[in-house]
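Can't attach files on this board, so I'm pasting raw text. These are the components:
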Amino acid sequence: MSKVLVVTSGKGGVGKTTSTAALGAALAQAGENVVVVDFDVGLRNLDLVMGAERRVVFDMINVIQGDAKLAQALIRDKRIDNLSLLPASQTRDKDALTPEGVAKIVDQLREKFDWVICDSPAGIETGAIMAMRHADMAVVVTNPEVSSVRDSDRIIGMLDSKTLKAENGGRIDKHLLLTRYDPGRAARGEMLKVEDVLDILSIPLLGIVPESVDVLNASNVGSPVTLNSPSSGAAKAYFDAARRLRGEDVEVIVPIERKGLMGRLFGRRVA
Amino acid sequence: MNLLAWFRGERSAPVARERLQVLLAHERMASGHSELLNVLREEILAVIAKHIKVDREKVNIKLERGGDVATLEIDVEMPDALAVTAGRRGKAAA
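---
Top answer:
Structure tokens for the assembled complex are below.
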């Protein structure tokens, strides 16, 4: 039975696209047949983060409007056979996403893949609603920072009211993915702690991705962090998150700061 | 320096947590309003309809939020035929 998963947040720049790529790759690395779908019409970026920007010929809008077949628009990853990408259109606007068109594409993707991972645009407009509309489960990407937590709360409310599953009286599975977490800052009381965010949003925790240069390096070279530096802390967090999504019971590890005593006393972060 | 700020108790995360808790409590209420009201209206109508035939248009339900308390106001206009008081108000703090 295939699953449709939306990666959403409300706020922009928290790591939706990076997390879509990393989770999609991690699930594919575990042997699942995965497609990642970019819903950010007009501002597509998943192709770039996945390193497929020069291979885009057709996009989702072309398929919706009947100018291309779905199979023509799907791009198979060069590193993992069972990972594909459906790019968004860069030239159209979000109104080209029709509810019927999106429903048809999601249905077709469900038949071909085990996991359909929808990368939502920021905001709470049409694009974001289209991305969550057909989801069975949601990953809410949140940074430990006030505006991100507030926007996540808003998105959680929308997941409970605007998805097909919610409208039919069901309940969408929601998971919190805390990204850009800085254990040092949290320990010093400069950043919201994991338990603060969990208390406030009260949805189960899928994982904690530490703020890490590996994530930036991975997107620089166009490769999901789970492929580019699989032994890094960030990749490990995504691998564990993917195992939890598959239903495995994996303990969540809260990253701790690795710093010597002198560093702790005199250390000062540049960023 | 980090350590000094820490000793002085200048930690901003607890402030962030508290501000968020207060703000989100309000925002959740506001967004939950319309849905809650619809559910209340339907259920209250169903209870009344068991005993009295009332006009759907003549049932008013209002939820108002003040500083510390919220009031739920239910206004039901009864048909004349029943020869009871034409209106009845129920107020409850929610």
